[in-house]
């Protein structure tokens, strides 16, 4: 294949991936986020920028959704109020745009994005199948969503990132994300990798598998609406995300635990997949 053709394929792949993640308004949002002058919440050398700009976020994001679903009240809120089945890519685009704005955008835009999310959270409340009431603005639920996300992004970056962070960088990443978490209403979020691990351990008694969580896992891993050509790469992405989950998170979601295969075949496939995404996405940057 000619070099020109390779470049064309790369551009098309990058545009398709970016469009799926960022939505139809992605190019316009990207230009505004990165091009608007003004102070930012995070300087260019901060770890949060390094992690959130990396292709490993694709794997980390899927792992985060699976882990978050283990809190029955958080999952009830998603099942009752999120159109993740009818519009999964729209939800992904909104989430990725929020991450991009708070990480790379101006401080004013970041605060506006946070204010919008807090406004949405105030309207989300209900009763879980077990009879317990939930509110999306509950600091306890906000913290679980936050730490599951941060742990997933950090683990994915350490395994598949182009330049994994050292201990100082990992602690700095957790501290950076605490800035956003506090703005969203999390009380005293963790600020180091060890605090993050401790906080996740503290949540484990509140976690468990529910029918809604297992249904969401099946949808996310096996039946998302994808074109035929994307199904095989997505299967590799799904296997890579599952392999990053701790053993205690697999059983409640009825997910397999195969350490030898995960450490060899799945890990190798993950590196190839994330490397391919990184190669393609550089053409859309």
UniProtKB/TrEMBL annotation:
Transmembrane segments: none annotated. Residues 49-272 form the ER-bound oxygenase mpaB/mpaB'/Rubber oxygenase catalytic domain. GO terms for molecular function: oxidoreductase activity. It comes from the Bacteria. Pfam families: MPAB_Lcp_cat. Coiled coil: none annotated. This is ER-bound oxygenase mpaB/mpaB'/Rubber oxygenase catalytic domain-containing protein. The lineage of its organism: Bacteria, Bacillati, Actinomycetota, Actinomycetes, Mycobacteriales.
